[in-house]
Amino acid sequence: VQLQASGGGSVQPGGSLRLSCTGSGGTLEYYAIHWFRQAPGQGREKIACISSSDDRTTYEDSVKGRFATSRDNARNTIYLQMNSLKPDDTAVYYCATDRSPRCFSHPPSWYEYWGQGTQVTVSS
To answer: Rounded CA gap, 35 and 49, in Å?
Structure first.
């Protein structure tokens, strides 16, 4: 399965963006999709996940209440809606999967399939 992340850009603090993670060569409906981000000079941080079986979502505290992930199986696409963006949200955002249906937590090195990353910059 191949993943492609898109939708990044530059926004002012308080603004919104919607990222997309589109799959090819596989049906994302069967996989939990994880969202990571990596700020300059920092490690890759997992921020959200959506499971496949029941669309259960999990979020890290840093984005809880501001970000929401969802899936559109007809489009084979997962979305990350990001609201109330802050400068600390500036990072390259990635989607990833290990083809498991559940949102088990693993370090970034565990995940075999990654999108190429999309830059999000929050600045006034």
So the answer is: 6
